Batch of 2 targets.
Target 1
Amino acid sequence: MPAVAMTVNGKSVTGDVDARTLLVQFLRENLRLTGTHVGCDTSQCGACVVHIDGKAVKSCTVLALQAAGAQVATIEGLAPNGAPLHPMQAAFRENHGLQCGYCTPGMIMSAIDIVNRLGHDLEDKTIREELEGNICRCTGYHNIVKAIAAGAKAMQGQPAGQQAAE
Ligand code: FES
Ligand code: FES
């Protein structure tokens, strides 16, 4: 079994994986970081979104070995060890941007990536277009869009290092 090494939420990690092990499996099964969800087997739902080297990626579409040497950030890295919630997490809570919560980790990791790419003043239309790869079965999206607009504003002026959740 090949060994793989990468940095996850700022910590160096290693593990033995099959050549076919997906990054999402490595995160959930080897590292027990179960905040990253699996909601489909067709790369459509976005529940598995993490950041690789600062960019949102569906971790079910990446082999663990392809992430060798990368900086990976998961939802657990946003507010580690009881730290205050990341502004985007707080915005989802305050704006009721979730119901069952299954899609939420992927929504939040995608949302932070949207802010990193497009800035803090996001129109609803832009947010809806950008969420094309994230499916929610519960909320009807309205409050998710509100939450992301509010979270984008709240991320303004955030100390460097928290913007991309690395
Ligand atoms: S589990 Fe990755 S897109 Fe659905
Ligand atoms: S809150 Fe249930 S799937 Fe989005």
Note: The domain at 3-77 is CATH 3.10.20.30 (Ubiquitin-like (UB roll)).
Target 2
Amino acid sequence: MKITIAFFSLIFVSSSGVAQDVRVGVFGLFHPDRLVVSARTGSAVVVHVAEESLVLEESSGVNIADIRVSGDNVVLRVGTRIFHNPRITVTSRNNGPADFNLAIAGRITRHYRGTLEVKPYARALTAVVTMDLETAVASVVAAESASDTPAEAVKALAVAARSYFAAGKGRHHDFDFCDTTHCQFLRAPPANNSSAAQAVDATRGLVIAYQSQPFAAMYTRSCSGRTLTPDELSLPPAAYPYYSVDCKYCREHPSQWQSRLSSEDAVALRGSNESSRLSLDRRLGWSAVPSNTFVVRREGEQTILRGVGRGHGMGLCQAGAKAMAEEGATYREILAHYYANTDVIPLGGVPPPRRLTERSRSRQFDGLSVPLKK
Ligand SMILES: [Zn+2]
Ligand SMILES: [Zn+2]
């Protein structure tokens, strides 16, 4: 019996007991050659460059780090001081995650929570925020959920988003995920009392697993009345088979769209092919071809597409999940419907922290967790 308890707490420490970090490349869509970092009201951040550490704080009068690209270096200006270095990082005073604002002057300012690294890449700046997994999940759920989405549908999305982060790494070279729908749309972390933060908290550490393995769960804004399989979209088989499941809401309330393409662009779109749709949307804008379910009609030099649904059409349908929740379904029922033959499990396959016994809680701080932290 003793052996069983020791074994169990050891597994716990190596999984849920250790915070997972996610490295998110942000603002890549803008290819910025200049970024501005600032501390948020009431807090300080530290900019590290070479051997120097520079504090940004509103009350000190020095609150702006201006970062530009110059060849293989970044040029950092803080107050009257200027530095040239291959990279800079931004942390809290104790080298941990900080709350800071990152801006592209005149275009966008966004709040992030994590540590920031900025370096040049292809004559632009690459900004990577390393954030705690749960912060990343909350920042996606907040970006993806409309304010009228019922709690159980938000929770279902939280579990899917967490699964994607936990199992979907490797889509980018310099970081794990980008902040666009190529990976997952991510904005600022939500306020603690928001529905997004509460849904993330209520499902903390939970992921979707197929044959006991978490997988990068895909989700789509709405579908065509049934979800699509990778094969139908000319995608390679995924770790999870993605069955086509019925979606009552979209079947009864299809989200319709119409779009005009030039003949050349229409040729580039090879039917219901997710890769060609994405490359076309990247070039023409994200509403050029909103989904993979459409019919084509020629009109002179132009091609008219009439379609239904938003997004690739695979996995959880957000419109259908919302309707299921409004009819009383729980997040587990929603996930079981859209991801058939899966289980909701704690990341690492062991219970989340709130179920810990006092004995295993004390084991968490006996030093075992330290080497596993990074
Ligand atoms: Zn991406
Ligand atoms: Zn649907």
Note: The pocket of zinc ion (ligand 1) is lined by residues 171-172, 177-178, 182-183 (CB under 6 Å).
